[in-house]
From TrEMBL:
Intracellular or extracellular location(s): Cytoplasm
Main location: cytoplasm
Organism: Actinomadura miaoliensis
Family assignment from sequence similarity: Belongs to the methyltransferase superfamily. L-isoaspartyl/D-aspartyl protein methyltransferase family.
Protein name (record): Protein-L-isoaspartate O-methyltransferase
InterPro entries on file: PCMT, SAM-dependent_MTases_sf
The enzyme's E.C. designation: 2.1.1.77
Taxonomy, superkingdom: Bacteria
Position of the signal peptide: none
């Protein structure tokens, strides 16, 4: 996979600019989008993988729609009682289906 196959979404323009500088210094040039990551980025979907680096309470359906069947969504899921835990789902059709069990996400 080359950098031309990677899209990153950041809501903060200053942080996105710093990320662009850091990535360029490291020799990478992915597509950088300023926007709400919860909405994903449909223009270059479908994606093989969606990786989220901030804790979320639930997987946004936009990510499911933008992940190809059999693709993976990986995100830290946060709940008031459990704190943050890392979870992973495999997407089949237009609904996330856990890879190991119909009852719980992969961990």
């Amino acid at each position: 996979m080359g950098a031309d196959q990677v899209t990153t979404v950041e809501i903060d323009p200053d942080l996105s600019a710093q990320a662009a500088r850091n990535l360029k210094a490291a020799g990478f040039s992915p597509r950088l989008v300023i926007g709400d990551g919860l909405a994903g980025y449909a223009e270059t979907a479908p994606y093989d993988r969606v990786h989220c680096t901030c804790a979320i309470a639930a997987v946004p359906y936009a990510w499911v729609e933008q992940t190809r069947p059999g693709g993976r969504i990986v995100a830290p899921i946060s709940s008031a009682s459990a704190g943050a835990t890392s979870s992973s789902w495999t997407c089949w059709a237009t609904a996330p289906q856990p890879a190991s069990s119909p009852a719980a996400p992969d961990t």
